[in-house]
Amino acid sequence: WAMSGKPGMAVREIKRAMKAGGSTPGAQLALAQMYFAQEDQVASEETFRKLLAVNPDHTAALLGLARVAARRGDFEEARLGLQRLLQLGVKPEAIILDQAAIEAASGDVNKAAKLLSDAVRRQPEDARAWMALALVSSQLGDAKRADEALLKLKGMSKLAPPIRFALAQLALSRRDISEARRQLEDLLRAQPTHLGALGLMIQIAQMEGDRRQLEQYVNRLLSVDPRSAMGNYLLGTFQYLREQYALAEASFRVSLESQRTADAINALAFLQLLKGNLGEAETLVRESLKMNDELPTAWDTLANVLIQRGKLEEAEEAAQKAVAMRPKEGSVQTTLVRLYDAKGRTEDAIKLADELMAESTDLNARDRQDLAAF
Question: In this prediction, what percent of the chain has a pLDDT beyond 70?
């Protein structure tokens, strides 16, 4: 479960094993590490400390505590933890990547780069060290050293999934879509259920506007994680475009149960608008805008809600904000037609409707039907 990107499931299985009589130090260590992977610092630290209460020199637990300290921003405690490991006889090369990570996280990227250069000199086949060096070099703007590290990685025959995932992330940051896709496809061949890789493939399909690929990877994501916030939001979007409004609403609600995002809240608000539930629609869209007031679709939804509620001045303010962000979008311009009509500016409404029907290529079926009525 941990390798496939589901640390929560891993925690559950480890707890089952421990309850069945397998509460060994190894199981407790695995549990602490899975809590860490889940980003549950409190539970992770508590479990590491239980191990240390029995064995104060437990090196893996001490390393775990140092990593927890670094994650919460206590870099001095993290450094002290690593020094303690050196005092216990742990070899410097065993913790040099953690030292570099602590320095990078604390803001001393140059020191991190020096540590990583030393790491790859000592361990020239350590893919993790080369990957970290590539990332830090990119952060420093040292393209030459980053490219050298990447070239070394590409020459390695076997790369662990986390390294391939990091390579894909780095490729995306450099806008090298083909390399990102290659790394992700190799990763997914080894781990078909890797949630992070599926999420990045969805991002790539969105960037390229490849609807077929997008739906394919959304379906794969949902088969692994049926309650995925992103997966259900995108599924709801597909269902909305197919005019399957009841299914879309169910998908958006599942998405929001997992994570409340401005986009999904606005999508649900728009469906409530279509159903005539203006009160719920307005409450939802205002929540969306509170989270992100730079979301043009939410301003457009709010404008349409306010038009139907007869609050025309406020509707015009919302519509103009949507227009300012997306001046050429057909749905936004259609909202202006509805606004002009509601305000009695019939000639302006007809003129703009005619222009949109003749020129706009991105109108949905509902907008075309409304414009045709003019």
Answer: 97
